[in-house]
Design a protein that fits this description.
- The structure is a single chain.
- The protein is mostly beta strands and 336 residues long.
- Helices cover 9% and strands 24% of the residues.
- The strands form 4 sheets. A 7-stranded parallel beta sheet has the order 2-17-15-11-7-5-3, with helices on both faces.
- The longest helix is centred in the N-terminal third of the chain and has 10 residues.
- It is rod-shaped, with a radius of gyration of 34 Å.
């Protein structure tokens, strides 16, 4: 189960950082600034759009977005829907905003990881069979329930934002931009519940009494003991919260200066809640005592099996770590 008080307290202190808090690196060229696999993805995608318009909540499901102009409408956001790729690359000569007072955002799509699978239930114990020395056979205990599955962890893509410059309206050289990037890590999935313990088997019936014509030779045998209920499965542990998304911003010195006013929220995701322990199995009934006769008493019923101990719950997942931010300036941004 999630620790809600902890989550609320943590959320109060998960304040966005400013991009200007990061110290930019100066590189001689894009080739010197970006990893080879990113450069290959950027060069291999020839679908360059003249204009990519961001209106309202604009989805983008791909991994490489190349446009001469990415134009945001007032209070709009670009929603990155691919949350499983290793990289997402956004490249534009000009990222344009209509005014400096509206808010603009780039964020990952919301992800709600499913609860892990429940552990398999334990098998029912075998019933007692036959008898030994007139006593009914004891039943077997129920099997232990299986442990619940561990919650999932989602690793967000590394975002590469390659921009020549930003503009606001007709101003191609604004001093600041009102852009925020929401790259918070995905909360870990909850652990699965443990399986239910198997029920104990029922004890066997005691042997019937034995007599001669004049006396009792052997009273009825007692019934066999019922099997113990199986212990429930341990709850699965919550998944570790995903790390906050990492961001590499590459631009000219002017573009890096403009981007310095952007806010970035890249805290790690909360850990998943623990899975509940599985319920213990039901104790088996004792077998009936063997029947009596004219000279002999019948046997006593067997004792009921024992109830199992409580199984343990899983552990809460750990919170993910904050993502990394890197600002890189190059003399010229040549992408297309």
């Amino acid at each position: 189960m999630r620790r809600y008080q902890f989550l609320i307290t943590s959320a109060l202190f998960a304040l966005p950082a400013q991009a200007q808090d990061e110290v930019p690196l100066a590189k001689a060229s894009i080739d010197a600034a970006l990893p080879l696999e990113v450069r290959l993805l950027l060069a291999g995608n020839n679908n360059v759009q003249s204009l990519f318009a961001v209106n309202g909540s604009e989805p983008f499901a791909g991994t490489v977005l190349k446009a001469n102009v990415i134009s945001f409408s007032p209070n709009s956001e670009l929603v990155l829907q691919n949350t499983t790729a290793p990289y997402i690359i956004i490249a534009a000569r000009d990222v344009k905003f209509p005014d400096a007072t509206s808010g603009y955002r780039i964020r990952f799509a919301d992800v709600d990881l499913p609860t892990a699978a429940k552990g398999a239930d334990g098998a029912r114990g075998a019933d007692g069979q036959g008898e030994v020395n007139f006593l009914g056979g004891s039943a077997s205990a129920g099997a232990i329930g299986q442990i619940g599955g561990t919650g999932e962890t989602r690793v967000l893509p590394h975002v590469y934002l390659v921009v020549d410059h930003f503009s606001i309206g007709s101003n191609a050289n604004p001093r600041l931009i009102n852009l925020s990037l929401k790259l918070r890590g995905v909360a870990g999935g909850d652990g699965g519940s443990g399986g239910i313990g198997g029920d104990g088997g029922n004890g066997a019936v005691g042997h019937e009494a034995s007599q001669s014509a004049f006396r009792c030779i052997q009273r009825g045998g007692n019934g066999g003991r019922g099997g113990d209920g199986g212990i429930g499965g341990t709850g699965g542990s919550g998944g570790q919260g995903g790390n906050g998304g990492s961001l590499t911003f590459l631009s000219t010195k002017k573009g890096v200066g403009q981007f310095g006013y952007a806010s970035i929220l890249n805290q790690g995701g909360f850990g998943g809640g623990y899975g509940r322990s599985g319920r213990g199995g039901i104790a088996g009934n004792g077998g009936s005592g063997g029947s009596g006769n004219f000279h002999c008493h019948g046997g006593d019923g067997g004792s009921v099996g024992a109830l199992p101990a409580l199984a343990a719950t899983g552990l809460d997942g750990e919170q993910g770590t904050k993502g990394k931010v890197m600002l890189i300036s190059v003399p010229v941004v040549r992408m297309f």
